[in-house]
Amino acid sequence: MSQNAPYVMQMKAGNYAWCACGQSKKAPFCDGSHGPTNIRPVLVTIDEDKTVAWCGCHASNKKPYCDGTHSKVGKA
Fold first, then answer.
1. CA 7 – CA 16 distance, rounded (Å)
2. What predicted TM-score, i.e. pTM, was given to this entire model?
3. pLDDT of residue 71
4. CB 10 within 8 A of CB 51
5. Three-state SS across 16-72?
């Protein structure tokens, strides 16, 4: 599920599928909850172990990574 903050995680090198629909129960990663929609996960390859701030609000302009947009979501 979406949240108004990034998912900051230590990631191992490898392939990941970031949830783009905001419905996954395994957020920030895809669990197939998008079903028949045309929304598909964003596939990412991480080349080395590192800390990643995955977007949690789904409004980032740098998806799948957090760019701070969550601090502006819902504000007039």
1. 14
2. 0.88
3. 87
4. yes
5. EEECCCCCCCCCCECCCCCCCCCCCCEEEEECCCEEEEECCCCCCCCCCECCCHHHC
Residue ranges per domain, the chain?
7-70
For 34-54, how does the pLDDT look when each residue is reduced to its tens digit (9 = 90+)?
888 889 999 999 999 999 999
Query: Of 44, 37, 47, 48, nearest to 65 (Cα)?
Result: 44
**Token output for 29:** 């990663």
CB 58 within 8 A of CB 4: no
Q: How confident is the model at residue 75 (pLDDT cuts 50, 70, 90)?
A: low
Supply 13's token pair: 């090198």
